[in-house]
């Protein structure tokens, strides 16, 4: 079974159990140990996964780190765990101190749902302030999972991880700066862009105006790029499967031209997807736009409708299938936020197909 599928199964476990997990110890047993096991380490072998490992710090004796992972008798990972309701933030945590006296090159601070991986890229043997890798069980990213594979028992490679960690560190830093520029464009960025087409002096008032223009332009460019990619994916899905196996027939050029996928439909799809991801992987939730409605299907199968968006009229309706695929119920929507109120119906529909 591949790593992503195992992590998605752990996500379902977390969603199902976390409201019953009331202590840090229970968080470790229910969530963290299965995560370590997913990486391929034997949680029942105390020479490979060492719980409550003594980690003396100066004059402080008897300090214990929650887990030490060993490979070839050498420590490679240390884990500090918190209750799932706490933040997985290393500030003021014991992980900094444990890392300093440990021979492991990587430290993990986790609350059972978020796993922050740290290294010593800035100064040798001093843990960096910020993680180079974050695995969020409730929001799995393919690129992060790819890096996580290097931490598995069979694929562990110190050199590969360090190379990836340095790259990830700078990519995250650049991304953070970019996001800051989108939210509040700096004078430097505005000058760089505007001076390419505007040959008049940038006075203070003009700079303020162009900052607003730049913010709107950057936001609009990103939103349209996302919309275009989603619409492209929808068109591919529309053409992909024959009717014989429960999938939609290929769309002809004339019918396809009449289908207009709106930004509102795409936003509603993302809301439904977020609700359903509590139970299943995102790849099983398929959009399918038609001339009369926007459908959301399980496994891209027309026989397994999860819901339908009827947004092509003055009044908008949300159709659910909790009582069966042939017993759809429509409810009028006054805002997209109301979709969250259909959480139970969506989950029940999903259970009907299991």
Outline of the structure:
This protein has 354 residues and is of the alpha+beta class.
Could you characterize what this model shows?
The chain is of the alpha+beta class. It has 3 domains: 169 residues, Alpha-Beta Complex (tt1808, chain A); 54 residues; 109 residues, no CATH class. Helix content is 40%, strand content 18%. It is built from 10 helices and 11 strands. The strands form 2 sheets. Strands 1-2-3-4-5-6 form a 6-stranded mixed sheet, with helices on both faces. The protein has a 5-stranded antiparallel sheet with strand order 7-8-9-10-11. It is flat and about 65 Å long. About 4% of the residues have low confidence.
Q: Could you give the topology of this structure?
A:
Blueprint: H1 3-17, H2 24-38, E1 49-54, E2 64-71, E3 74-81, H3 95-101, E4 106-110, E5 114-118, E6 133-136, H4 142-148, H5 158-183, H6 187-194, H7 204-240, H8 253-256, H9 263-276, E7 285-289, E8 294-298, E9 305-310, E10 316-320, E11 329-333, H10 343-352
Parallel strand pairs: 3-4
Antiparallel strand pairs: 1-2, 2-3, 4-5, 5-6, 7-8, 8-9, 9-10, 10-11
Helix pairs in contact: 1-2, 6-7
């Amino acid at each position: 079974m591949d790593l992503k599928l195992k992590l998605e199964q752990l996500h379902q476990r977390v969603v199902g159990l976390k409201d019953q997990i009331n202590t840090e110890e229970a968080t470790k047993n229910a969530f963290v140990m299965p995560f370590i096991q997913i990486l391929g380490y034997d949680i029942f072998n105390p020479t490979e996964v060492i719980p409550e490992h003594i980690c003396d710090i100066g004059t402080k004796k008897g300090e214990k780190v929650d887990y030490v992972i060993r490979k070839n008798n050498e420590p490679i990972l240390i884990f500090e765990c918190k209750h799932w309701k706490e933040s997985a933030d290393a500030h003021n945590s014991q992980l900094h101190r444990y890392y300093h006296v440990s021979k492991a090159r990587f430290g993990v601070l986790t609350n059972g749902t978020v796993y922050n991986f740290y290294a010593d890229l800035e100064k040798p043997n001093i843990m960096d302030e910020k993680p180079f890798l974050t695995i969020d069980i409730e929001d799995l990213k393919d690129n992060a999972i790819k890096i996580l594979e290097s931490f598995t028992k069979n694929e562990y490679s110190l050199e590969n991880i360090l190379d990836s960690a340095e790259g990830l560190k700078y990519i995250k830093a650049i991304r953070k700066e970019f996001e800051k520029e989108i939210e509040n464009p700096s004078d430097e960025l505005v000058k760089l862009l505007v001076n390419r087409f505007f040959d008049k002096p940038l006075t203070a008032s003009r700079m303020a105006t162009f900052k607003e223009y730049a913010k709107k332009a950057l936001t609009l460019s990103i939103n349209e790029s996302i919309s275009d990619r989603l619409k492209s994916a929808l068109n591919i899905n529309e053409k992909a499967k024959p009717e014989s196996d429960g999938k939609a027939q290929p769309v002809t050029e004339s019918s396809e031209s009449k289908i207009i996928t709106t930004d509102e439909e795409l936003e509603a799809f993302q809301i439904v997807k977020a609700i359903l991801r509590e139970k299943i992987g995102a790849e099983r939730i398929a959009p399918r736009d038609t001339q009369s409605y926007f459908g959301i299907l399980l496994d891209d199968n027309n026989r397994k409708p999860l819901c339908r968006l009827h947004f092509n009229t003055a009044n908008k309706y949300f159709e659910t299938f909790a009582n069966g695929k042939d017993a759809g119920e429509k409810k009028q929507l006054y805002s997209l936020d109301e979709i969250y109120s259909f959480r139970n119906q969506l989950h029940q529909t999903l259970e009907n197909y299991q």
